[in-house]
Design brief:
With 202 residues, the chain is mainly alpha-helical. The chain is built from 10 helices and no strands.
Amino acid sequence: MAVTLQKARKTPGKPQLTRDDWLDAAAGEVASGGFGNLRVLTLAKKIGVTRGSFYWHFRDHEDLVTRFLDRWRDRRFVELDYMKPKGDDPEQELHQILQLLLTDASRNVRRLQVELAVRDFARRNEYAAKLVAEVDRARVEQNKLLFRNLGAEEERVEDLATLMYVATVGSQVVLTGRQGNEDAIRRIEQLVARVALGQRPD
């Protein structure tokens, strides 16, 4: 089998598929129909290869799901690192983070579809539930850092961080697919920021 796979990978004129190519294709299937939509034969047909290519990169379907979930978690941590508050100007950072999150949501429909599918899958899959809990905890911890930089009282930091997380997730759901509606994005950003800063919404 190894010889056959090596020959398949060296077919002239055809780019060599990577594991990420398979995972990208898997993301499309998960976004459109959840993890129940994730089938090896369907992926192979969409990519235009035989199932033999799949087994070069993954042991089996379960390995595909595990690696997909791992990549989802790892990418969320990369995003968090990119948006980590530095504390130089906390209020400005708050607005920048909210604008980044909400603008991305309005443009990137598939990203939210995948996140919702992962969370739905976590209801019945222990490993997915573990990774979702890790991501949620990390996101709340980052919000806690932001609120500490803003000077919030320590006994209120956990609640404020959790509230902001819930508010931003809900806002992303509302704004998904509304690219070009900058007024709505700006309005929700201002509302969440005012609540985060302890001010009453207009």
